[in-house]
Amino acid sequence: MLICLTASHKNAGFDMLERLSANAEHAAPRILEGHDAVQGAVVVATCNRFEAYLDLDAAEGTSPVPAVHEAIRAVGTVAGLEADELRTTFGFVHGNAVAGHLFAVASGLESVVVGEGEIAGQVRRSLEKARAEGTTTPELERLFQRASQTSRRVKNETGIGGEGRSLVRLALDLAESRVTDWGATRVLLVGTGRFAGASLAALRDRGVTDVRVYSPSGRGARFAANHGIESVPRGEYASAAAGADIIVTCTTAEHHVVDKALIAVGREELEASVALLPGAVVPVQEVRQLVIDLGLPRNVAPDVVDVPGVDLLDLETIKIHAPLEELGATDAAREIVDHDARAFGDGAEERDLAPAVVALRRHVYDILDGEISRAQARGDDGRTEAALRHMAGVLLHTPMVRSRELARAGEQAAWIDGLEALFGVKPEAEERSADARDVGAGRVGRDIRSTDAARSAADPAAPSAQADAS
Questions:
Q1: Diameter of the chain by CA atoms?
Q2: Which of 95, 192, 293, 436 could form a disulfide with 300 if both were Cys (CB 3.0 to 4.6 A apart)?
Q3: CA distance 303 to 89
């Protein structure tokens, strides 16, 4: 059973999202420790959302609530938040709706700026991190791989991301009223993380040529060399910050990299240097500055606005001003997401019926083998065996077709009950239990082969699930 716990800009405050995101790397392993039913977990944490995708090994009729509560408690523990507060905040998505939700997220349809391009990469990296931590499962792998495929379809087949919409570009849109000439604007880029390249590209698109970079982690020189800009040495950081017209912070540092003290020290250094220049008449303190904070956790201390002439544009402010209606998702993008989510659900429902399919085929072929043995004992030359095998395939055709139809309608129980009522056939309890363990532990090969067998009986030309998965 797939479950998603979601907190985003739509249902959670920025402070909570910041706490959750700052501790996201520890969340998935802790979630797995919380309850035996949780077989896998992938955490997606961005500047505007925290989501935990869980794969539960829950027997039919068993409530997932205890496992979900333990997962929430685990998240609260690593983030330093009360479980009760998280329970009232987290959205809850389960079953087939999980695919639709993740596909929409990966396609940028649930972002502050609809269609923003960074989220697809963040979703992909979340899966890679889960692989490295050993917290993913085959079902979660399939879910996230299909999400990446859907996001690419949305990007390639619709115009939703055609304008390069992103938080970076929206921030610069909001800064437009403060900038008279982008070509003459001096920019300091702080950080070489996930938004740095996108920030630099967006600045250049607006005509900015004077960009310098500073990295708290010491990677500034390499970033600068790769992008043809100047790197700021550590000892010149304060004066560079004070001398910039715009500071864009996009580092993953867990501490403030810009604050009131830094700007104050930098201005003192610049004042001292300006005083040495003959004819200097413009005091440094009259220069107006804009600080754009794209970091999460926050890169910029709130007290920076206490410095005269400094304005702060952070993610919370960007969210408030995002023109959601203007940048709304296209109908075509939603149709792609809905179509792909239904296809994902159809495949999952068919696999849910795999044990019953196996039981029916075993029942039919046990009878078939008995009849073939009797025919061979009477001296059959092979024609009777061929006829019997053909007849078995014909007889299985309609039940296999109906199994898929009912599975896609969510009525698997009707098909299983019909088998028992007509033929006295039902999956053994231990087989169902073993199948559930296989899915939870990552051994889904038998399910795929069983579904393939059902498809082959229904249509010898049908493609296999293994081909789909490859």
A1: 117
A2: 293
A3: 29
Q: Are residues 155 and 34 in the same domain?
A: yes
Domain boundary among 134, 160, 186: 160
Answer whether 108's CB lies under 8 Å from 116's CB: yes
**Domain shared by 181 and 90, yes or no:** no
Residues 173 and 148 in one domain: no
- The answer to whether the CB of 36 falls within 8 A of the CB of 139 is no
Q: Do 64 and 3 meet the contact criterion of CB atoms below 8 Å apart? A: yes
Q: Which residues pair with 78 in a beta bridge?
A: none
Q: How far apart are CA 38 and CA 57, in angstroms?
A: 6
| Contacting residues for 461 by C-beta, under 8 A, at least 6 apart | none
* Percent helix / strand / coil, the chain, rounded to 5: 60, 10, 30
The alpha carbon of 97 is separated from its chain's Cα centroid by a whole number of angstroms, namely 14
- In this structure, what are the phi and psi dihedrals at residue 156, rounded to the nearest 5 degrees? -80, -30
CA distance linking residue 315 with residue 293, whole number of Å: 7
Cis status of the peptide bond prior to 297, with omega within 30 of 0: yes
Mean pLDDT, residues 298-317 taken together: 92
Domain count, the chain: 3
Q: Write the pLDDT tens digit of every residue in 308-355.
A: 999 999 888 887 776 544 444 467 888 899 888 888 876 555 556 667
C-alpha–C-alpha distance, residues 411 and 210, integer Å: 63
CA atoms within 13 A on the CB side of 35: 22
67-94 average pLDDT score = 92
* 3 state SS of 233: coil
> 290 with 378, same domain?
no
- Cα pseudo-dihedral 325, 330, 331, 336, rounded to 10: -130
- Report residue 414: phi and psi, to 5°: -65, -40
Same domain as 142, residue 36 = yes
- Residues with Cβ within 8 Å of 134's Cβ and at least 6 positions away in sequence, in order, are none
Q: Which amino acid is at 229?
A: I
Average pLDDT over residues 147-176: 79
Sheet with 91-94, edge to edge strand ranges: 38-46, 49-56, 2-8, 91-94
Same domain, 124 and 177: no
Q: Look up residue 272 and give its two tokens.
A: 């001292």
- Give the catalytic positions in this structure: 47
State the Cα torsion 387-388-394-397 to the nearest 10°: -150
CB-facing half-sphere around the CA of 366: CA atoms within 13 A: 7
**Average confidence (pLDDT) over 175-194:** 90
